[in-house]
Amino acid sequence: MSLDLTTISAQEQLAAIYIGYYDRAADPVGEDFWESAVANPNLSLADIATDFATQPETLIAYPFLDAPTAEEAEGFIAEVFLNLFNRAPDAAGLEFWSGALLSAIAGDEGALSVGEIILAIIEGAQDSAEGNDRTTILNKIEVATTWTDAADAAGIDYTSDTAAQNSAKSIIEGVTDAAATVTAAKSTIDGVFASTAGEEFRLTLTTDEITGTDNDDTFNAYVKQDGGLSNSLSSADILDGGAGNDRLYADLTSEYLGNSGDAVDYTDIQPRVKNIEEIDIEARDYGDGAGAEIVVDGKHITDHVEIGSYYSDGDLRIENLTTLTSSGYARDTSEITITMDHTDNFNSDDDASDLTVLFDNDYILGRGQTSEGQIFYFLLDEDAELAGNPNRLNNIDVDGIR
């Protein structure tokens, strides 16, 4: 008995197509996109399978689709069989489907499309003496959909998560017609997407020196009542996120020197923070006098990936920000994301809450730079230079006068 794709779910149909083309499980975003296409009554499954052939991932994997040759067509068909059934096609099947593929790419009248060929190969799967193709592809579909559901539940960003990209392929590779391979693959999935939630650390009004765990920790620095409002994140704190993808949330009002609270005593907040990837600062609205702008000095903050304003109703200024890692490596400025999330519309000054971020100018880096750039200025007396030599200034280059 062959495989009737109409008897399985849209998710399973798409899993089969992903396996056929890419030998991997579908990523959650991709699956959502294609499932919405399957739900469109104006599109057939063959239309969708054909659209896969024009996707960037397909053209990178199979560049011959733009410039086909008979040899490369045979390679494509052989790859599809290997992806789906863990075996090469027999000689007759290879010749037939390669010819069909070349006709499809050439646009011959009446030819099957590339997508229709993929679907026909899938639907032709049977369990026989040559191999248990139907059981093999159904097992792969079961593992692939399990992986996609787990990846979706874990909230991974597939486009930037190299480990997830590798897992989507490797999880399929060991699946055969044996039920034990499905069990083993599902067990691996459980391990891949096991919870990485770490611990919550709450900062205090005293000096905090905290090192996080290997998982995804959260450092919460709430404003506290201490005869008045005081920041729990202060210049005296030393925070190390450790491994994992960590977050620091800091609720901040103005910080002042000593205990007087006089306007002249206000200072910036300059904590020492490393290995915390996301830093969200909620700036409190203080008014329009001294200390109205919350200032965070970032000269001792390293390894951050995102930093900015979070639900602020006051003005926030982050200054002296660098791109340094804790090992001293200077990243491109483009690797740092500045965020302004759900900031209040108006503060007590009757204007919108502001975010100002000032990088240390040694770390305005781009296009692969790992150290600061330099600019040289040369001063000259134009009249003296031109005297007796009117063409003198025609020979200036970037380093001065030749």
Features:
alpha/beta; six-stranded parallel β-sheet; 11 helices; 20 strands; extended; disordered C terminus
Short description:
With 402 residues, the chain is of the alpha/beta class. It is built from 11 helices and 20 strands.
Polypeptide structure, described:
The chain is α/β, with parallel strands linked by helices. Helices cover 33% and strands 19% of the residues. It contains 11 helices and 20 strands. It has a 6-stranded parallel sheet, with no helix packed on it. Strands 4-8-12 form a 3-stranded parallel sheet, with no helix packed on it. A 3-stranded parallel sheet has the order 14-16-18, with no helix packed on it. α3 crosses α7 and α9 runs antiparallel to α10. The longest helix is centred in the middle third of the chain and has 22 residues. The radius of gyration is 30 Å and the shape is extended.
The number of helical runs is 11
What class would the helix/strand composition place it in?
alpha/beta
The outline comes out as extended
Tally of strands = 20
Q: Order of strands side by side in the largest beta sheet? A: 3-5-9-13-15-17
Poorly predicted runs are 398-402
Q: Major β-sheet, in short?
A: 6 strands, parallel
